[in-house]
Amino acid sequence: MKNSFRTAVFILLTALLSACGGGIAPAPESGTRTVTDGIGRKIELPAEVTRTVSLAPNITEIVFAVGAGGKLVGVTTFCNYPKEAKQISKVGDTLKPNIETIVALRPQVVFVSTASQLEAFTGLLERQGIAVFVTSPDSLEGVFESMVSMGEVLGKAGEARRVVNELRTRVEKVREEVSRTEHEVEQTVFAQIDPSLYTVGKGSFITDLVEIAGGRSVTADIETAYPKVSKETARAFNPRIIILSDSPDNREPNEVFSESEAVREGRIVRIDADVLSRPGPRIVEALELIFKGIHGREAK
Amino acid sequence: MLEVDRIKAGYGGRTVLDGISFSVSDGSITAVLGANGAGKTTLIRLLNRSLDPFDGQVVLDGRPLEELSRRQIARSIAVVAQENETSFPVSVLEFVLAGRFAHGSTFGWESERDLAAARTAIQMCELEGMGQRLMNELSGGERQRVLLARALATEAGTLLLDEPTANLDLSHQAMMFRLVRERTKGCGGSAVVITHDLNLASEFADQILLLKQGKIAACGPPQEVLTTELIAELFQVEVLLDKNPRTGNVRITTVY
Amino acid sequence: MTLDLSKPAGLGKALRYGAGFAALLAVSLAVGTSLGAETLSIFSLSETGSAILFDIRLPRVLLGACVGASLAVAGAGLQALLRNPLAEPYLLGVSNGAALGTMVAIILFGTFEFARPVLAFAGAALATFAVYRIAQSKAGMNAERLILSGVIITTLLSSVIILLTSLLDATRLRSFTFWLLGDLSQATMTGFWVCLVTAVIGTFILSTRARALNLLMVGERDALDFGVEVERTRLAVFAASAGLVGVAVSASGSVGFVGLIVPHLIRLFTGSDNRFVIPFSALFGASFVVLADTFARTLIAPRELPVGAITALIGCPLFIWLLRKN
Predict the structure, then answer these.
(1) CB < 8 Å from C in window 134-153 of B
(2) CA of C216, closest CA in chain A: separation in Å?
(3) What is the signed CA dihedral for C118, C121, C123, C129, rounded to 10 degrees?
(4) Which helix (H) or strand (E) holds B153?
(5) How big is the CA angle at C231 (ends B52 and C139), to the nearest 5 degrees?
(6) How crowded is the C-beta side of A38, counted as CA atoms within 13 Å?
(7) Cα–Cα dist B83/B168, whole Å
(8) Helix (H, G, I), strand (E, B) or coil at B217
(9) C59: Cβ–Cβ under 8 A, 6 or more apart, which residues?
(10) Which chain B residues are within 8 Å of C215, Cβ to Cβ?
(11) How far is CA B165 from the centre of its chain?
C-alpha cells in the first residue's frame, strides 16, 4: 500500500516536472518555435522537425528511444546502437564531424553533446539555417530531462514521457530494493574504466549509479570526473566489488587487485562499455547490472 | 684618404685598442702586423664602422664615418674577411653580385653595370668559368678568391683585407697582392691588409703598422719598421734581415 | 644538383617561374574546391550544393592558401635570417607561441575576435625572441644550438597548450589537436580576408628585404660590410615573420613543416636568391596546404585527418634528409 502510494506521487511529480523542463513556447510567427537547449541556449526550430542529425552515440540512443529513429538522417561512426543506427549515413566522428556532409543532409536540427569547437561550428551551421541543440547530461536525472526535451523537439513528447516514466519505475524498484537490504559491511566498489586505472570521480554519473544501487565508490571524493589513480592508491582500496567497463582490453581487473576481496570472492561485474558510459536510455540497464553485482540478485 | 684619429675601442667593458692614430693615403697599401690579440681585426672593423669606437673617430675623405650610412660606407670601402661556410646553395656569380648591394635599390634586379663589374672581378681573380659553381663545392683557396672578387666587384676605393692569403697557395698569394696593388697604384685607391707574412708585407706595403697590445709599436715604411729588435719584441723570434736581391726590399728570414 | 643559373636573376626568370607557380596555385584551388566529402557537380549546383561550395568549402580552401603562403614565407625569411635551412616556424616554437597567444586571447577576451591575431602575434614574437637569445653564444649563432633551443621551446609550449586544453573549458578553447596539428574546418570569409591581407603585407615586407637577406644568409659580418643595416633588417624580418605566423595560427592552429619544406623545394628550382625564394614560397606554400588539406578531408571521408598530420608526414622524412645532408 505504502509503495503504490509513493509510486503514484512519484509519477505525478514526474509528469509535473516534465511539463516544466524544456520550455517550448509557441512562437509569434507560424511555423517556428523557440526552445531552450541543455545548456540554456535559445534556439529557433521549425514547428515540425523531420530531419535530424546526431553527433554522439548516447544522443543517437535517446533519439531511437523516444521513437524518433526514423527522423535521423545522419549519425557518427561511433553510433552503433540500436542496430538500425548502423544503417544511417555517417557524418564523421564525435570530435570532428564533417560540416559538408551534415549540410548536404539538410537536417533542421543537429544534436550535439559537447563539441570541442562549439563556437565556430555552431556559427557555420546556423548560417546554413541548421539549428544546433546542445545536450550534455551528466546524471540520471539529466538523462531523463534530456530525453524529454529532445522528445519535444522531435514531436515525440508523449512517447518520450512514457519511456522516461518506465525508466523511472525501474530506478524506483532498485531504490526500493536497496532501502530494504541491509549489508553488514559497506559495499565498496571500484569502477575500472580502463586497464591503466582510469576510474570515476565526483563528476561522473557512474558514481551516482553506484550509490543508488546501494554501493559506495571508493573514488567518490576525487574532484575530477574521470581521474587516473596510481597503483599504490588502487591497492590500498581493497574494494569488495569491481566493475569493469567491458571492452576487449579491459576484461580483467588490474593485477594490483589480485589480493582484493573482490577478486578473491569473485565479485566482478562486467558491463559493456557502451552501456556503462553513455548517458542515454541504457543507463538504467547499467544501474540494474550494478545492483545485481552488489546484491547478487535482480531488483524485482 | 683614410684617417684614424686617437681611436679607443673594444668590446663590452674591455679596451682592445687605445690611442691609435695613423692615416692611409690614396694609392698606398698599409700592412697591419702584430701578435694574435693585438687588436688587428678590431682595427679593421673600426675602419668600416662595423664596430663603433669608445672614443676618437675615423675619417674618410674628410667625412667622419659616423656621418655616413652603411650604404655610403659600403660604396667606398670593401672588405675581404675570413669566410664562413654557407648552408645554402649559392653560386659564385650570385655571391660576387651580392657585393653590389650598396649600388642598387632595395628591390630590383642587378643592372648591366653590376653584371659587368662582377664579371670583371671574377676574371681578375682567375675564376673564369666557375661562375655557376656552388660556393660550398669549392676549396678553401678558391672561396678566398671569390671573397676577393666580391670586394673588387664593389669598385670601392678602399679595400680592407683580413689575412687574405691564409688559405692560398703560392701563386695565388702573389696574385692577391698584385691585384691589390693594381687597385691601389693603378686606380688611386688604398688598402689596409692584415697579414702574418712579413715578407709579403715588406714587398707590397708602402706603410707598416705594428700593433702591440692595442697600441702602435711602430708606423712607417718597411725598411724603418722591420728591425730585428722590434720583431723580437713583438713576436719573440730571432730574425735575420737582408735585402731581396731582385727588388731591394727588406727580406726577413726567421731563425728557427 | 643542377640549378637553372644560366642567367643571373632577372625579370624574365622571375616572370617565367612566377607564371608556373601561379598556374599551380590556380590548379590547386580548382582541385580543392571540386573535391570534398560531398561530391558536387560544379555545373549544376543545387541550393544545398551551392551552400556547401560557397559557404563552407570555398572559405576553407582560400584560408588554406593564405595560411600556406604565410607559413612558407615566414619559413623562408627565418631560414635566411638565422642562416639555417632547418629553421621554420613550427620547429622553432614560433607556431606554438602563436597558438598559446590565441588561447590566452580566447580565455581573457572571449568572443572579441580581433584580440586573437594580436595576441598570437605577441606570442609568436616572444617565442622568436626566446629562441634567438638562447641560440646566441659568443661565437655567434650556431646550427645545433638553434635547433636545440627551438625544440625545447616547442616542446615546452606544446605541454602548456595540452595542459590548458585539458584543464579549461574545451568548448571555447578547442582541442589540442586543433592547436598542435592544425585545422582548417572553422574557416570563415572574415578569417580569410584578415589572413590574406597579412600574407600580402608580410610577403611584401620580406620581399623588399630579399637582397639584404641574400647577404645576411651568408654571414652577419658580410651583410654589415656590404651595406646592410643589419639590426633594422633583422627587426623587420622577425616582426613580419611573427605577424605572418601569428595570424595564420590564430585562424587554423599550427600547421607544421610548411615553412621547412616549401622554401627548400623552391631553392631546388631557383637557387637561394631570396628575390625568388620569398615570393615563390608564398605561391607554392599556398598550393601545398590547399592540396594537403584536400587530401586530409577526402582520404577517409566523412572523417577528417588533421592537415598538420599530412604536412608532418611529408615534412619529417624531408627534415631527416636535410639534417643528414648538412
Answers:
(1) 134, 150
(2) 42
(3) -140
(4) helix B140-153
(5) 75
(6) 24
(7) 13
(8) strand
(9) C187, C188, C189, C191, C192
(10) 98, 101
(11) 10
Does C37 lie at the interface with A, CB-CB under 8 angstroms? yes
β-partners of residue B243 are B250
pLDDT one-digit tens code per residue, B67-125: 999 999 999 999 998 777 788 989 999 999 999 999 987 777 888 889 999 999 999 99
Nearest to C218 among B78, B86, B97 (CB): B86
Amino acid identity, position B173: Q
Looking at the DSSP bridge assignments, the partners of residue A198 are A194, A228
Other CB atoms within 10 A of residue B82 CB: 14
**Alpha-carbon gap, residue B168 to A10, rounded angstroms:** 101
CA A216 to chain centre: 20
DSSP B107: S
In the numeric block, which cell numbers belong to residue B101? 648591394
Cβ atoms of A175 and A212 within 8 Å: the answer is yes
Touch of B by A (3+ CB pairs closer than 8 Å) = no
Minimal CA–CA distance to A265: which of A245, A238, A237, A226? A238
Complex ipTM: 0.89
pLDDT tens-digit map of B141-171:
889 999 999 999 999 999 999 998 887 888 8
Q: What value, to the nearest 5°, has the Cα angle with vertex C135 and ends C68 and C272?
A: 45
Full DSSP string of chain A: -HHHHHHHHHHHHHHHHHHHSS--EE-SSTTEEEEE-TTS-EEEEESS---EEE-SHHHHHHHHHTT-GGGEEEB-TT---SGGGGGSPB-B-SSSB-HHHHHHT--SEEEES--TTHHHHHHHHHHTT-EEEE----SHHHHHHHHHHHHHHTT-HHHHHHHHHHHHHHHHHHHHHHHH---SS--EEEEESBTTTB---TT-HHHHHHHHTT-EETTTT-SSSS-B--HHHHHHH--SEEEEEESTT-SS--GGGTTSHHHHHT-EEEEEHHHHH--STTHHHHHHHHHHHHHSS---
Helix (H, G, I), strand (E, B) or coil at B120: helix
Q: By CA distance, what is C326's nearest residue in B?
A: B87
Instruction: Determine how many CB atoms are found less than 10 A away from the CB of residue A191.
Output: 29
Place A14 in a pLDDT band, splitting at 50, 70 and 90. very low
Residue C199 grid coordinates: 600574407
Whether pTM > 0.90 for this model: the answer is no
B212 burial (CB, 10 Å; 0-12 / 13-18 / 19+) is middle
Secondary structure string (H, E, C) spanning chain C = CCCCCCCCCCHHHHHHHHHHHHHHHHHHHHHHHHCCCCCCCCCCCCHHHHHHHHHHHHHHHHHHHHHHHHHHHHHHHHHHHCCCCCCCCCCCCHHHHHHHHHHHHHHHHCCCCCHHHHHHHHHHHHHHHHHHHHHCCCCCCCHHHHHHHHHHHHHHHHHHHHHHHHHCCHHHHCCHHHHHHCCCCCCCHHHHHHHHHHHHHHHHHHHHCHHHHHHHCCCHHHHHHCCCCHHHHHHHHHHHHHHHHHHHHHHHCCCCCHHHHHHHHHHHHHCCCHHHHHHHHHHHHHHHHHHHHHHHHHCCCCCCCCHHHHHHHHHHHHHHHHHHHC
- For residue B37, is it left (φ>0), alpha (ψ between -120 and 50) or beta? left
Cα–Cα dist B43/A83, whole Å: 86
Contact at CB, C272 and B132, closer than 8 angstroms: no
Burial category of B125 from C-beta neighbours within 10 Å (exposed 0-12, middle 13-18, buried 19 and up)? buried
Q: Taking residues A245-262, what's their average pLDDT?
A: 89
Q: Which triple of cell numbers denotes residue C136?
A: 646566441
Chain C environment of A115 (Cβ under 8 Å): 171
What pLDDT sits at residue A4?
A: 53
CB B91 within 8 A of CB B138: no
